[in-house]
Amino acid sequence: MSKVVDEALSAVTTGPDGRPLAFRWRGRLWRVIRTAEVWKEVGYWWEGEGEKTFFRLETEGGRLVEVYFDSRALGPAGSGDPAAAPSGDPVVRGTWFLYRVYD
Protein backbone atom coordinates (compact mmCIF):
# COMPACT_ATOMS: atom_id res chain seq x y z
CA MET A 1 0.00 0.00 0.00
CA SER A 2 1.02 3.61 -0.38
CA LYS A 3 -0.02 7.06 0.73
CA VAL A 4 -0.03 10.15 -1.50
CA VAL A 5 1.62 13.03 0.37
CA ASP A 6 2.49 15.61 -2.33
CA GLU A 7 4.35 18.00 0.00
CA ALA A 8 7.21 20.32 -0.96
CA LEU A 9 10.61 19.24 0.35
CA SER A 10 12.68 21.79 2.22
CA ALA A 11 16.03 20.59 0.85
CA VAL A 12 17.28 18.10 -1.73
CA THR A 13 20.85 17.05 -2.48
CA THR A 14 21.38 15.80 -6.02
CA GLY A 15 24.21 14.06 -7.80
CA PRO A 16 25.82 15.25 -11.05
CA ASP A 17 23.14 13.40 -13.03
CA GLY A 18 20.33 15.25 -11.19
CA ARG A 19 19.14 12.23 -9.20
CA PRO A 20 18.33 12.80 -5.53
CA LEU A 21 20.94 11.57 -3.05
CA ALA A 22 19.19 12.84 0.09
CA PHE A 23 16.21 14.99 1.02
CA ARG A 24 14.72 16.62 4.11
CA TRP A 25 11.04 16.05 4.86
CA ARG A 26 9.27 17.14 8.05
CA GLY A 27 12.61 17.88 9.69
CA ARG A 28 14.11 14.45 9.03
CA LEU A 29 17.00 13.70 6.66
CA TRP A 30 16.34 10.78 4.31
CA ARG A 31 19.36 9.29 2.50
CA VAL A 32 18.80 7.56 -0.83
CA ILE A 33 20.51 4.22 -1.39
CA ARG A 34 19.01 3.36 -4.79
CA THR A 35 17.04 4.91 -7.63
CA ALA A 36 14.57 2.25 -8.76
CA GLU A 37 12.88 4.16 -11.57
CA VAL A 38 12.81 7.54 -13.33
CA TRP A 39 10.02 8.86 -15.57
CA LYS A 40 8.50 12.12 -16.80
CA GLU A 41 4.88 13.22 -16.82
CA VAL A 42 3.21 16.20 -18.41
CA GLY A 43 0.46 17.72 -16.30
CA TYR A 44 -2.53 19.79 -17.35
CA TRP A 45 -0.62 21.87 -19.89
CA TRP A 46 -3.76 23.90 -20.66
CA GLU A 47 -3.68 25.05 -17.01
CA GLY A 48 0.00 25.97 -17.16
CA GLU A 49 1.43 22.81 -15.60
CA GLY A 50 4.78 21.75 -16.94
CA GLU A 51 6.72 18.54 -17.16
CA LYS A 52 7.56 16.78 -13.90
CA THR A 53 10.42 14.33 -13.44
CA PHE A 54 9.58 11.54 -11.01
CA PHE A 55 12.02 9.31 -9.13
CA ARG A 56 11.11 6.12 -7.26
CA LEU A 57 13.73 5.84 -4.52
CA GLU A 58 14.79 3.39 -1.85
CA THR A 59 15.99 5.11 1.31
CA GLU A 60 18.14 3.91 4.18
CA GLY A 61 15.98 1.61 6.25
CA GLY A 62 14.30 0.19 3.15
CA ARG A 63 11.50 2.76 2.72
CA LEU A 64 10.27 3.19 -0.87
CA VAL A 65 9.17 6.73 -1.85
CA GLU A 66 8.41 8.75 -4.95
CA VAL A 67 9.66 12.31 -5.35
CA TYR A 68 9.36 14.65 -8.28
CA PHE A 69 10.92 17.86 -9.53
CA ASP A 70 8.51 20.48 -10.87
CA SER A 71 10.49 23.02 -12.87
CA ARG A 72 7.61 25.51 -12.97
CA ALA A 73 6.72 25.53 -9.27
CA LEU A 74 7.98 28.31 -7.04
CA GLY A 75 9.45 27.33 -3.70
CA PRO A 76 11.73 28.47 -0.89
CA ALA A 77 15.43 28.85 -1.57
CA GLY A 78 17.07 25.46 -1.18
CA SER A 79 14.10 23.49 -2.46
CA GLY A 80 15.00 23.65 -6.12
CA ASP A 81 18.00 23.78 -8.37
CA PRO A 82 20.53 26.20 -6.83
CA ALA A 83 21.80 27.07 -10.29
CA ALA A 84 18.33 28.38 -11.18
CA ALA A 85 18.42 31.44 -8.93
CA PRO A 86 20.98 34.10 -8.08
CA SER A 87 22.67 33.87 -4.69
CA GLY A 88 20.54 35.29 -1.91
CA ASP A 89 17.27 35.01 -3.85
CA PRO A 90 14.61 33.85 -1.31
CA VAL A 91 12.50 32.10 -3.98
CA VAL A 92 13.62 29.82 -6.81
CA ARG A 93 11.82 28.37 -9.78
CA GLY A 94 11.76 24.62 -9.54
CA THR A 95 10.71 22.70 -6.47
CA TRP A 96 11.07 19.13 -5.26
CA PHE A 97 8.05 17.32 -3.82
CA LEU A 98 7.60 14.08 -1.91
CA TYR A 99 4.71 12.54 -3.82
CA ARG A 100 4.14 9.06 -2.42
CA VAL A 101 5.32 6.94 0.52
CA TYR A 102 5.00 3.14 0.37
CA ASP A 103 4.33 1.00 3.45
What's the Cα radius of gyration?
Answer: 13 Å
The geometry reads as: globular
Distance separating the two termini: 6 Å
What percentage of amino acids are in beta strands? over 45%
Number of domains: 1
Strand order of the largest sheet: 1-7-6-5-4-3-2
The helix count comes to 0
The main pleated sheet reads as: 7 strands, antiparallel
The residue-averaged pLDDT reads: 84
Low-confidence residue ranges = 77-91
Number of β-strand runs:
7
What percent of residues adopt helix (DSSP H or I)?
under 10%
Structural class: mainly beta
H/E topology pattern: EEEEEEE
Task: Give a short synopsis of this structure.
The protein is mainly beta. It has one domain (2-102).
Chart the SSEs and their pairings.
Layout: E1 2-8, E2 11-14, E3 20-25, E4 28-42, E5 51-59, E6 64-76, E7 91-102
Antiparallel strand pairs: 1-7, 2-3, 3-4, 4-5, 5-6, 6-7
What can you tell me about this protein's structure?
This protein has 103 residues and is mainly β. The chain has one domain (2-102). Strand 2 and strand 3 (20-25) form a beta hairpin. Residues 77-91 have low confidence and may be disordered. It has no helices and 7 strands. The termini are close together.
